[in-house]
Each structure stands twice: as structure tokens, then as C-alpha cells.
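User: I'm writing a short methods note and want a consistent example. For Paraslipin, I'll paste the sequence; you return only the C-alpha cells, no commentary, since I'll be parsing the reply automatically.
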Amino acid sequence: MDPSVPFIIIAVLFVALALSAIRIVPQARAYNIERFGRYIRTLSPGLNFIVPGVDRVNSKFDLREQVFSSRPQPVITEDNLVVNIDTVLYYQITAPKAAAYEVANYIQAIDQLTVTTLRNVIGSMDLERTLTSREEINTRLRGVLDETTGKWGIRINRVEIKAIDPPPTIKEAMEKQMRADRDKRAAILHAEGERQSRILKAEGARQQAILEAQGDQQAAILRADGEAQAVERVFQAVHENDADAKMLAYKYLETLPALAQGEGNTFWVIPGEFTEAVKNVTHAFAGDAAQATPSTEKEQPERTGTEQRSITAADPGRSTSAQAAMHAAEAAEKAVADARDDVRRAGDARGGPTPEPRDGDGG
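Assistant:
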């Protein structure tokens, strides 16, 4: 037997004993060490030494934040409706010793604690509040869980409601309600649009009417100003040219037919000044003829038409002046007859009765 063999065996045993005394802990990990079944210490990340055959690693923990997703749990709301709620927890082990020795299975403990807390929270809410108060539910769950799991060496960082599933009948009712709300909002928006459209159209019509009225007003003012200037110029021309009574009476007779041309004139009364105008024309023409006769004829009294004709036949020497006077009277009567015919035709064109002349005293 080779004397070096025992030394080799001793060396191998020593190396194996040394290796069993070394423990390398990865980063963000923690190992709990027991000696003879009693907790001694927790190994931190890095190189660590233990007593071989005496110390042993009881449990290993991951100190990073972890995610735990629970199964959907049936929960009854305050209005006696069953909903399935699925939650997600984010937790982290802060005390490996407490997590190993204060609770047997911290995952199961967290799951059951979450379910019971969730039922207590949801039981005090109705369905509508449950669906719209997720942030409130998360905050209350996190407060209860963090307070309870603190002694287990676990910190609850965040709790999220992943899904809330009401019964199928409730889903159908909610869909109908949402559809009705959308239809209501659409009808309201359509009505608002119609209202705004009508308001804008009415405002536009109002502005149009105002502008048209202002335009008509300006046009009427301009027309009135033009007529006033025309009348003023005629008045000035008459006074500057010193028009005699014959010209004024003739213009008066010439203007009478235009009085019947107005719109809506179905009855027209010839003013009493008509006879006076005819007399003025007659006297004007008679005056021109009288100026051509001797002064002895001017002093004779006024005679009727029959007497004038008799005098003319008896005295041929005065036939020239008498004929001039007769022609003037005939011209005046013809002018009167033409004026009456024009007035009658104007009345017939308007569809009204034939106007009747009246003299100055209303006869």
C-alpha cells in the first residue's frame, strides 16, 4: 500500500469540507440559516461561510418585487348582484426571517386575505359605484393588506383590479342603458344644431330686412330730395321768367290727367279749381283778342256767345276782333274737353267709375 494514499484521502476530505462551508448568495436574494434546527442568521448577497454539518440553509427568498394574480372571485355587491373580480398584487419581501417563520405559506395567506378584504369592500358598494370606483377599491385593499402583511415581512406596493365581470343580464341592461344615453345625447346635439341653425337664419333674415329697409329709406330720401330740387327749380324758373296766368292755367290743365295715373285710383273727383283754370285760359285768350280791338270795344259790357255772334254779323268792321275772341273761347273749350277725355280714359284704364267734375263751390 502506498503511504501517500491516506494523505490524498485526507486532502480530498478537507477540500470537500471547505467547499461545504462556503455559500455564495446571488444579488437580491436572502438565505435563512439554521443550526441544529434553530434560526441563526440570514445570509446577505455575496460570499458567506457556514459550519459544515452544523448549519444548513432553511429557506431562500427573492427580495425583488413580485406579481401575484389571483383567480376571479365571486363577490356580492350591496344591491345583491354577484360580480367576478380579478385582482393583481405587487408585493416585496422585506424581512426574510418573518416571511419564513411568521406564516407558513405567505402566497396562500395573501390570496385569502385579498379575497376576504375584497368582499368586505365590495359589499358596502352597489354595482354602479363598484364599476366607477376602482381607485377607491384599490386604495382600501392596499391599506388593509399592507397593514396585515407587515408582520409577515411582506410589503404590498400596489393592488389593481384587473377585471370586474357583472352577470350577462346586467351586461345587456347596461348596454341598453348606454345605447339609450348615446341616442339621447345625439338627439340633444341634433336639436341644438337645429336651434342654432334657425337662430342664425332668423338673424340673417333680420339683418337683410334691416338693410333693405335702410336702402328703401335712403332711396326715398334721395327721391324726395330730387323732387324737392325739381320743384324748387321750377318755382325759381316760373318767378324768374314771370309766367303769365295763361301759361300757369295751361300747365294746370296739362297736369290734371296725371292725377288719375296713381296706383289704386278707382274713383277720382275733378277739383273745383278746374273750372277756374278754364276761365283763366278763356279770359287769357279773350284778353289777347281784346287788346287788338279799339278802346271803345273794351268799354262795352260783357256779352254772351250768341250776342257776340250777332254783333259780329251786324258790324263787319268789328269781325276781326270778335273772331279772335271766338277762336280763343273755342280753343279753351277744346282744351277742357280734351282734359275731360284724358281723365275719363285714365279712369277706365283703372277699372273705376268715370270721374265727374266739380266746380269751386262744390256744384
